[in-house]
Amino acid sequence: MAQFKSDFMRVLHERGFVHQCTAPEALDEQAAAGRLVAYVGYDCTADSLHIGHLVSIMILRWLQKTGNQPIALMGGGTTKVGDPSGRDETRKLLTAEQIDANMAAIRRSFANFIDFDAVGGRKAAVMANNADWLDQLLYIPLLRDVGRHFSVNRMLTMDSVRLRLERDQPLSFLEFNYMILQSYDFVELARRFGCNAQFGGSDQWGNIVMGVELGRRMEDRELFGLTCPLITTASGAKMGKTAAGAVWLNPERLSPYDYWQFWRNTEDADVGRFMKLFTDLPLDEIARLEKLAGAEINDAKKVLAFEATRLCHGEKAAREAAETARKTFEEGALADNLPTVDVPRATLETGLPAYEVLRLAGLAASNAEARRLIKGGGGRLNDAQIASETAAVTMADADAEGRIKVSAGRKKHVLIRAV
Length: 419
Fold this sequence. Notes:
single chain, alpha/beta, 14% strand, five-stranded mixed β-sheet, globular, 419 residues
């Protein structure tokens, strides 16, 4: 589409959010009239979302900012089944208590992105839980009323099923039902909230289309689907995957400083694109910043890091993270806001091997990984390279406040505090 009637569709296309859409002209008309009510589903497999979810969260944010209504659907019911999309093995099944605890923690992931109150005339976002209806379903009525609209032949062609079978990986009958339940979610949200669109990642296209068709077959409803592209870095790596694991949104999982540092370390070629996707910065300001070259590109990365952290953790946390980084890298000081790990003073008085200290600090997942880091020259103690993996770290290395700075490379730092 060359021209858009709605700010929502214009923003999504200008900033690079759109991969596929079922009926772009009709969806555009709904958004222009302020009648678009759209959802994204999030299963509760952990107690935080991560930046792999962030593109869809930002789409919900723009939906609300342009006068329409977002729904964050918590998968209290579907988490009991497990989405097979993009996986070679069955997800670990969680208890109802674990799912409820994860759901409560995940709500905080949304706090700074969308408003659940009608603020400034905006339509309040909705957080729904599909356990409210899926837990009430009876098997025979589900097969009769919903299952009859699904062709097994077609279900076998969907990527979530086909790819697992092609790799000779087992697919349980429980997982095979996931797309039916996701499709039914769409219909139920349409009934309860007037929801008329579903958004998701590109791997969800098949499931979303099935939901669009189910709405038409069961209730003669016009529903829409839109997916966002899989985000990769300029070097081809999957967005958000690091050596240390997922980049979590909740501060209990990942400190605001480490979150800031993740964005600060963005590859040069990705800065402009990530600003469009993960910040609210105006496009003309992004265009100015992405033209910076040489050492000046670091200024643009700091803006990206600040704006992304501000959205996720609030402005105060973003400013503190930026100041911590400035003190650490520009002044060489021990910044108070660096991640801190407490270690018994008696242990440090006796002395700990350097590799064990790096592991305790969370800079390596295991002693073996810490040894490799030191052997490769990446382990640092108070900004000096650690010469030997078995070198003893003692209270003699601590400052007057009992703190020792340990680092993995020159960008990731943790304070060891004797207590």
